[in-house]
Write a structure and sequence with these properties.
The complex is a heterodimer of chains A (46) and B (363).
Chain A (H helix, E strand, L loop, with lengths): L20 H17 L9
Chain B lengths: L9 H42 L9 H14 L5 H7 L2 H12 L5 H32 L4 H12 L2 H12 L3 H28 L4 H11 L3 H11 L1 H15 L2 H14 L9 H8 L3 H13 L5 H25 L10 H29 L2
Helix pairs in contact in B: 1-2, 1-3, 1-15, 2-15, 4-14, 4-15, 5-6, 5-11, 5-16, 6-7, 6-8, 7-8, 7-12, 8-10, 8-16, 9-10, 9-11, 9-16, 10-11, 10-15, 12-13
The chains are: A mainly alpha (46), B mainly alpha (363).
Chain lengths: 46, 363
Amino acid sequence: MSESPPAHPPRSSRPRLNLSLDWLAVITALILVFLVLVGLIPSVPW
Amino acid sequence: MAQATGSSTPAFVSRPLLSRFLELLPGVVLLFTVGYLGKLTEQFLKDYGKTNNLSLPNIEYVLWAILYGLIISNTIGVPRIFRAGVATYEFWLKIGIVLLGARFILGDVLKLGGVSLLLVVLELGVAIFIMQIIGRAFHLKPKLTSLLAIGSSICGVSAIIAGKGAIEADDDDAAFAIAAILALGAFGLFAYPLVGQAFQLSDQAYGVWVGLAVDNTAEASAAGAIYSDAAGKIAVLTKTTRNAMIGFVVLGYALYWASRGQAAEVKHKGRFLWQKFPKFVLGFLFISILATIGLFTPAQLTSLGNLSRWAFLLTFAGVGLKTDFRELRRQGLRPFIVGALAELTVTVVTFGMVLGASSLFNL
């Protein structure tokens, strides 16, 4: 009798998205640029 | 290295993300508090001078933020609860650099980047040569010398971490090399602006000089910003050009140690170079292109510039909080002297290079 496959693959074999710190920073910065462009961040004081 | 988990089960995702967020929060709040205290101090001294008709020196918030951070890390130390968040300072640095792209027109990037690239190649050769000679004279362990050469020629901490894996160096050597680079950079933050002012360097010439001479990217940005806002921008651009060379230098050392049978062979050189390439440079160029084609209004450019400044504020606080002079005692004074001698030589040589480039390229 064959074993039924587990409902969820083991945690370690789940697909994982590995983002380096560099890419994470680039994506965060692009999100900030987008928010400024569409006016969701209206003005940033210093 | 940050990781994001891709899964369709919300509960599975949200728990680690939430706990990760809570783990980082205290340190990030500390970064903001220390950085903002620096900003308040600068403002307070300005107002105090004005009110009392005193001509106080204008000391930028950058220096105060780093100073407060140094005092905390070298007296009471940074408590464990804050450490994970404080370590995010490199993340804020990279966001700050990418957003800084909005303040550069692509033509300026290519012109200044071209001059910087020429000087960077010269600086790399000089720094590696000097570190090898001095390391040998002081009988340092060869791999520690390699790490110090990688750190002093390119970009301090990131380069040492990249080099450590590639040449299979000891953790202790890497920790020392990082501590030495940060401590020497912290000293430089006070010394470089004084020299720049004594020689009346222009913002551009000074920015290129610290971008070439200061090893840690955060400290190079800080050393530039202490001088002036314009010098800070140029320092970041020059330092970013230097960072882009990281793959070539680390690959060179990896091949050297592999040829001696003391590190793994590099099979795919192209992939190796891409892996080591600092990807935030691409983000910086992309935003600079968007600014060049006129995508942003002047108000949006101001907002992006200010967002970049806030990101740098967190970075500068982190520089102070992460620099612990006590780390240096672990390996004794000798490697530190080697690092200091090499840094001093690189500083003098790059100063000469910048003076030469100033007259040639009108910096």
